[in-house]
């Protein structure tokens, strides 16, 4: 007896094939699986949740020429409430928006990788406190818990601002280093809203998953229904 699958099953299969670690891929904002970096366009809002997904940025700035990453975090109401600046130089520095009054040097022992191409990962976690971690080419260069003493220039509101829900980022016009960022997967509900034909087109266009995955054995059957 031939098995039948609901519309929901087809869409969940598509989602599974896109986002499981075995496929080494994510979903683009327009719901196509890919592994591409996206070119940075400055001064525009980009749908991104930096709290739940580490922000990955690629730069190609030489330490001798220097450059600066400037990324702002916005709330659903388009309020700029947080962000991070990083100066790429022989003596690297950072500035935390709505927390610090000026740039500070990274910890004394910090030296950036010499390679021209660098991948930065900015991770923010929030439990009882806000925690900021910055990595460059896999090397941790900053691990900081925000507090009243760190954010001494904003004693009255830094905690309120940094604990808002962010859903957008913007690369500033003054950003001279950011070349690419890695896009954030859209909400699962966006996938489930796809029509049957859209699901088929998306799966047809995706990169084939590893042969050992069980889903590959019945995917053609689902698509042909």
In short:
With 225 residues, this protein is of the alpha+beta class. The protein has five helices and 14 strands. Mean pLDDT is 77; it is low at 1-5, 19-35 and 206-225.
How large is the share of residues in beta strands? 25-35%
Question: Count of DSSP helices?
Answer: 5
Sheet with the most strands: spatial strand order: 3-14-5-10-11-12
For the biggest sheet, the summary is: 6 strands, antiparallel
Helix fraction bin? 10-25%
Label the structural class: alpha+beta
What is the overall shape? globular
Oligomer: single chain
Distance linking N and C termini: 14 Å
Indicate the radius of gyration in whole angstroms.
Answer: 21 Å
Describe the structure.
It is a single chain. This protein has 225 residues and is α+β, with helices and mostly antiparallel strands. Helices cover 19% and strands 31% of the residues. The chain contains five helices and 14 strands. It has a six-stranded antiparallel β-sheet, with no helix packed on it. Helix 1 (7-19) packs parallel to helix 4 (196-205). The longest helix is centred in the N-terminal third of the chain and has 13 residues, at 7-19. The two termini are 14 Å apart. Mean pLDDT is 77; it is low at 1-5, 19-35 and 206-225.
């Amino acid at each position: 007896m031939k098995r039948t699958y609901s519309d929901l099953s087809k869409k969940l299969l598509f989602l599974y094939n896109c986002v499981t670690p075995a496929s080494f891929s994510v979903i683009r904002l327009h719901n196509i699986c890919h592994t591409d970096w996206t070119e940075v366009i400055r001064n525009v809002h980009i749908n991104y949740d930096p709290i739940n997904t580490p922000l990955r940025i690629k730069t190609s700035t030489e330490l001798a020429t220097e450059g600066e990453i400037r990324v702002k975090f916005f709330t659903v109401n388009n309020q700029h409430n947080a962000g991070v600046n990083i100066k790429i130089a022989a003596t690297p520095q950072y500035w935390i928006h709505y927390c610090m009054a000026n740039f500070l040097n990274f910890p004394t022992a910090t030296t950036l990788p010499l390679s021209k191409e660098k991948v930065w990962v900015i991770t923010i976690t929030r439990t009882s406190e806000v925690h900021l971690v910055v990595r460059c080419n896999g090397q941790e260069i900053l691990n900081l818990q925000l507090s009243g003493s760190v954010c001494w220039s904003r004693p009255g509101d830094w905690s309120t601002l940094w604990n808002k829900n962010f859903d957008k980022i913007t690369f500033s016009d003054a950003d001279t280093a950011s070349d690419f960022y890695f896009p954030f997967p859209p909400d699962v509900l966006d996938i489930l809203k796809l029509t049957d034909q859209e699901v088929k087109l998306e799966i047809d266009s995706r990169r084939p998953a590893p042969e050992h995955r069980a889903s590959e054995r019945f995917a053609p059957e689902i698509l042909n229904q």
